[in-house]
Design goal:
The complex is a heterotrimer. By secondary structure, chain A is of the alpha/beta class. Chain A has 13 helices and nine strands. Chain A is about 40% helix and about 20% strand. In chain A, strands 1, 2, 3, 4, 5, 6, 7, 8 and 9 form a nine-stranded mixed sheet that branches. Chain A starts with a helix and ends with a helix. The chains are: A alpha/beta, B mainly alpha, C mainly alpha.
């Protein structure tokens, strides 16, 4: 090889080695990390809200850096358990096993999971008029015992199959939805070919929007467009027949606009579940700047919830959250 | 004793380097709190010290160098067994809780309820790998033959880069393309063509398709190497005896490069069997055996990718996933061993 | 037969076209020079510089380590040092390690991480996983090119009194240079693009990692994150990241060809 190329190569190798030493030297740094970083990760459903909170909080405290990543509620819990984040965003209840390992949770917003169908559904008028009861939904999602849309609404002429969609990844949305139907867990949705399991909330919205026979469930913020506050193109929310009287009364009809849903959460006209609390969890207890941040979230931070599609923590639960935060 | 100026200055320089290193190491330890750099400069200081007092001959360098090389080689072989050992150790947990037959022959995978049946996933893995190989092997072999024997030189020079680049494309990119292109095509065109109207596009078939594309470059480039290694004289001899080009290819080139072709296929199989990311993006992620190729499923590798986030919440799940990784490792191990033995025998039989 | 070749070439063209068409519109100076904090995942500004830096910080040290280990082993596998029986055993081990799916390396590191309680992910374990992944690739590549060195060259070196170690370091290494470079680049390309091994081991972050125990973003994991976000606009950014990865792969391929051609002119045959 020409001497010049050889020299270039040697130089390149020397630079590379220097880089590696440089990086490795970062490892040796045992210096105190200035305590101005809060790391957060977890549920996709809380992610947009957290970003807003971070932006507002950093206006007040510019010296604090908050690193927020998503990855799902499962990741949030896992990261909190291992201590690699200060706060995990978790959209389901903490299990006993997790609590035993020291997980502490503070509710920071209320969110909801709703049932969705396509705008071109063959029986859409009947469904919007009558809604669906818990038992009917149970038969669709858990028992898989209603094969056609016609059978669902009592019209034998319609023989289109009901295409059920669920989530394949362990998620808070599925947990909340099956909890509404009864004392079930996500595992109770059958693993059969006829129920298509999609990965991620967005895949669910897409699937429903493109399948006129589909039925599924989603977080509020994945159903409604952030700009128009109405359901996304192709998606319609199934009204829940809460009082089981076979029709949707005016006070049960709050699905046209995201603001109506949030108000329903606040007024409790939408029961819990399918509305549910979303938590920030940490290991052992909340301390230092993390505690200050969460304190701000459940007090001043609550003013930003409505405009982003969430409802604030119910006032009767607020005191308890403060108590948990203080480590009581 | 008279010491020439040159070597006195050299000795002085080296000692200086040593002292500076010692000083720097303490700076890093006490002032900057960086342990690694402290260790590094301490190491340099010691080397300098040793250098000053030990007669460094070429044979010493050779001895030390060779010993070091041996150490590193043994270390890597040790790593191989360490990998196996740690995988086995991690699987013990779940093997104690559930019997092996439950794990392998039950189809129910519900980690939250404590059920870890892998049968459906194992069957899906076999189906997907088999189909992708069925698609990939003929196409790759024919392509390799064409490139090696029939293609004009200019064409060859254009195609080779294509294959190299295809080999280097990361699996996420393949997955992304499959998501965008293959999933809708399977859902709207291919599945209905074969009579299935309810396919969502996320299916075993889609996974097999993208896997076969990922396997093409592996088989082709290895086959090309083998084909090119067949001596020209052999080919010419065959042609001079009146064989047609295709007959030459079939009887001479394939025979002569048989071991290489087999090795290529084995390697391709390994890739198809173990591919994780691209498969998990298009296979539907459902632990069941679908009624048709156009239904969703899950392979062993994509199972790990779909479930790893919950290992902290469900500790025994970690053990189950480690067991799955162990299965992957063992299968690849067996296949490679088989391949090695088959190749040794085939080489002897097909030697020319 | 020609048809098969066209199928193969066609698939590459398809992939490149899809990525370029979808990725190019989202590419901009901004997206390449900013990090992903504050709304990148929600459609606002920002970019994936942290993923680029993260991937480099993962792949460069891993390739460097794997290179050092790989070249030492490859040199040692020559007949000069090891009996062929043991050398073939080592080669078999390396071949098996090459065939092992990268997710197994991820699980291996995850197991250790769980044992020491660091399940969140860190740069360190990402580098370890990638190094393990790259060692067999680089070693076998270098091994193959060393095998092709004419025996006569080494014998001349020995006859001039050079020790085994010296011959290995000075003669063999230089002769095998094109193969070594090709092997290293191949390993690097694998390291920067592989997702399964780092998915389990590095976590995620919106900023640059500042120490080996930090989590970090990386190009492949960023693609996976972007694809799962609700906004179509955000999902398109995944194609931009894929575009960057493709460009890197293309560059590596071109550089390998160029260097191989250039330096093989000067090898003694």
């Amino acid at each position: 090889m020409k001497v010049r190329t050889q020299k270039k190569l040697k130089a390149l190798i020397a630079v590379l080695i220097l880089c590696m030493v440089g990086i490795a030297s970062l490892a040796g740094c045992t210096s105190q990390k200035e305590n101005t970083i809060i790391k957060v990760s977890g549920a996709y459903s809380l992610y947009p809200m957290m970003i807003i909170w971070v932006q507002e909080y950093q206006k007040l405290h510019p010296e604090i850096q908050i690193d927020v990543t998503s990855g799902g509620a499962g990741k949030g819990m896992a990261d909190a358990l291992s201590g690699s984040v200060d706060l995990g965003m978790v959209s389901r209840d903490v299990t006993a096993a997790e609590a035993n390992q020291g997980i502490v949770a503070v509710a920071v917003v209320e969110d909801a999971v709703l049932c969705t169908i396509n705008t071109a559904n063959p029986v859409i008028d009947k469904i919007l008029e009558k809604g669906l009861t818990k038992q009917q939904l149970r038969n669709i999602f858990i028992n898989y015992s209603i094969p056609t849309w016609g059978q669902l609404v009592g019209d034998a002429n319609i023989t289109d199959a009901i295409k059920v969609y669920s989530r394949s990844d362990p998620c808070g949305a599925a947990e909340a939805w099956v909890l509404y139907l009864g004392d079930y867990t996500q595992d109770d949705i059958p693993t059969i070919e006829e129920i298509t399991k999609v990965k991620g909330d967005d895949s669910m919205s897409k699937a429903i929007a493109s399948d006129h026979l589909g039925i599924g469930y989603s977080n509020v913020n994945y159903i409604y467009s952030n700009t128009t506050k109405t359901p996304k193109e192709g998606i319609v929310v199934v009204p829940l027949d809460l009082n089981e009287n076979g029709t949707i009364d005016p006070e049960e009809n709050f699905y046209a606009n995201r603001n109506d849903i949030v108000n329903a959460e606040i007024n409790n006209t939408l029961p819990s579940p399918p509305s549910r609390l979303v938590y920030l969890v940490t290991l052992n207890n909340f301390t230092g700047i993390t505690k200050d941040f969460v304190m701000w979230i459940i007090t001043d931070g609550q003013q930003y919830t409505f405009d982003n599609g969430y409802s604030p923590v119910p006032s009767d639960l607020l005191d308890e959250q403060l108590r948990i935060l203080e480590g009581g | 004793m008279p010491v020439s100026n040159g070597s006195w200055i050299k000795k002085y320089k080296l000692l200086l380097v040593g002292i500076v290193s010692l000083f720097l190491s303490f700076v890093f330890l006490f002032i900057l709190n960086n342990f690694f750099l402290f260790a590094l400069f301490l190491f340099i200081f010691i080397i300098v010290l040793v250098y000053n007092f030990v007669k460094v001959t070429r044979s010493l360098v050779d001895l030390l160098g060779t010993r070091l090389m041996l150490f590193i080689t043994v270390f890597v072989v040790f790593l191989f067994f360490l990998l196996l050992a740690i995988l086995i150790d991690g699987s013990l947990n779940i093997l104690q809780k559930e019997s092996l037959s439950d794990l392998i022959f039950s189809s129910t995978w519900k980690p939250f309820s404590g059920e870890f049946g892998l049968f459906a996933v194992i069957v899906d893995t076999m189906i997907v790998t088999a189909i992708s190989m069925i698609i990939a092997v003929p196409i790759s072999l024919l392509s390799a033959i064409y490139i090696a024997e029939y293609a004009p030189k200019k064409f060859r020079n254009i195609v080779r880069p294509f294959i190299d680049v295809l080999a280097g494309v990361p699996s996420v990119v393949f997955g992304l393309c499959a998501l965008l292109v293959f999933v809708p095509v399977v859902r709207e065109d291919v599945a209905p063509f074969f009579g299935s109207t309810i396919s969502s596009g996320f299916s075993l078939f889609t996974a097999s398709l993208i896997l076969s594309i990922m396997v093409f470059p592996i088989i082709i480039s290895l086959c090309l190497e083998s084909f090119n290694a067949v001596p020209q004289a052999l080919k010419e001899a065959s042609l001079s005896l009146g064989a047609t080009k295709w007959e030459t290819v079939k009887k001479v080139i394939f025979r002569a490069s048989g071991p290489g072709v087999l090795a290529a296929i084995f390697l391709g199989f390994g890739r198809a069997f173990g591919e994780t990311i691209a498969v998990s993006m298009v296979i539907g992620n459902q632990e069941l055996i679908p009624k048709s190729l156009f239904g969703p499923g899950q392979t062993l590798a994509s199972l790990i990718a779909s479930n790893y986030t919950e290992v902290s919440s469900i500790p025994i799940l970690a053990s189950a996933l480690i067991f799955v990784a162990l299965i992957l490792f063992v299968v690849v191990l067996i296949f490679n061993l088989l391949g090695y033995l088959v190749l040794r025998r085939a080489s002897k039989r097909w030697a020319y | 037969m020609l048809a098969s070749v066209f199928i193969v070439m066609g698939s590459l063209i398809l992939i490149v076209t899809v990525i370029v068409l979808n990725g190019a519109p989202s590419l901009s100076f901004e997206i390449l020079t900013q990090t992903s904090g504050g709304g990148f995942y929600l459609g606002a500004g920002g970019g994936f510089l942290n993923a680029i830096v993260g991937s480099l910080l993962l792949a460069l040290p891993a390739t460097g380590l794997a290179f050092v280990i790989g070249i030492i082993i490859a040199l040692y596998l020559q007949k000069d040092f090891l009996k062929p029986g043991f050398a073939n055993f080592v080669r078999l081990c390396l071949d098996i390690l090459w065939g092992v799916p990268s997710v197994v390396y991820g699980v291996f590191c995850l197991t250790i991480m769980i044992a020491i309680g660091m399940t969140g992910g860190s740069l360190l374990f990402g580098v370890i996983a990638l190094t393990l992944l790259e060692i067999p690739i680089i070693t076998r590549s270098i091994d193959e090119s060393i095998k092709m060195i004419p025996l006569g060259l080494k014998e001349s070196a020995y006859s001039l009194g050079s020790t085994k170690f010296e011959t290995a370091m000075k003669v063999v290494r230089k002769q095998a240079m094109p193969g070594i470079i090709a092997g290293v680049l191949l390993g690097f390309g694998r390291g920067i693009g592989d997702a399964a091994s780092i998915l389990l081991t590095v976590g995620d972050s919106n900023y640059f990692p500042t120490s080996l125990t930090d989590q970090t973003a990386a190009l492949p994991t960023m693609i996976l994150n972007l694809v799962s976000m609700p906004d179509q606009v955000v999902q398109n950014k995944a194609y931009a990241v894929a575009f960057v990865l493709l460009v890197i792969v293309l560059l590596i391929s071109m550089v390998t060809r160029y260097l191989t051609k250039k330096s093989s002119k000067h090898i003694i045959k």
